[in-house]
């Protein structure tokens, strides 16, 4: 308690004079070390700036197909794409998140393996990276956009079966993710099947360790493929999420609604100008026919918008559902390859366990034979012990008595050993 009190109480001031040479130079550093502030040495300001700093993005335009590198901060990207911070966190390369496809009001957030991008109605934003699959994604998207522009210029109009820009960008992302996962599966298959065959032919510690590492890779890869497959299946089962992803149609409806409101305001101003010329009583209300006309126009416009919205949503959902279903089949085939490889590994493990059980059974049988042989040899020890006792009998006086004792004991041992073997075979402990 005295030591604890001395630690807690502040030191008393000393009024004794001391020369600088007699003072201990290590005392100030020790006092500073004892009163070091919490979290000293951690640069929280640097971490905060790193989270809010500018990042390099690759922007692909939908009209020209050209790409450019831009540097914007997190809040600018949030305002530009109308996304919350948690959606941008999915694209952060410092974090590892499972495959995700999110449909928002003005953008689609895609996190599929190496492809992490934001798709809007006019642009695609990817984190600037030197990864091969990211560069291939940009090149393939530009190639398709250029080919579509050439076809549109040659034909003079857009083909009726052409997908919107956001769906084409999503299709390229799905294709890149499926290709990446399928390449990983093919590489694992090339390495796994020979290793499993070698293990079945020769069971060793090195081969077992190699197969254990391959199985760990298989489990991790299966989890990634299963998550991507579940994400596509969940998106296909939800019509609302698929309708939310049609960004071009929502943009067109918003523009049409804006122009319609402008025209209605112009019509109201014209009606107001006409009504000003006529004398109106201050207590009278607007004429009833004008009210009915405005009400009928608003009802007709709302009904027309609702019917157009429902029909377009149904058609667009079918287009997106067919697109997702095509890549769902591809990734399901990849998952089936992993399932077949896992079954092959399980079969190999069962075969090895059977081999080990067979060897164990052979060892048990050999041990049983040695036990029976030891029992037979022990009979000679018993006979030798009996005749080694210090007493006199008439059998010792006969010259060939010792030979008969050995013959009878040996024959008895052989008979006992053969009896045990017959019993073991009768109980099927030994193979016939």
TrEMBL record:
Compartments, as annotated in UniProt: Membrane
Polar residues bias locations: 16-27
InterPro entries found in the cross-reference section: CorA_TM1_TM2, MRS2-like
Stretches of the chain forming a coiled coil according to its record: 211-238
Keyword tags: Coiled coil, Ion transport, Magnesium, Membrane, Transmembrane, Transmembrane helix, Transport
Gene3D superfamilies: 2.40.128.330, Magnesium transport protein CorA, transmembrane region (1.20.58.340)
A GO cellular component entry from the record: membrane
Top-level taxon of the source organism: Eukaryota
One Pfam family matching this protein: MRS2-like
Membrane topology per record: Multi-pass membrane protein
The UniProt record lists the keyword Repressor: no
GO MF term set: magnesium ion transmembrane transporter activity
Recorded family membership: Belongs to the CorA metal ion transporter (MIT) (TC 1.A.35.5) family.
Function in brief: Magnesium transporter that may mediate the influx of magnesium.
Protein name: Magnesium transporter
Organism whose genome encodes this protein: Phoenix dactylifera (Date palm)
Gene this chain is encoded by: LOC103721759
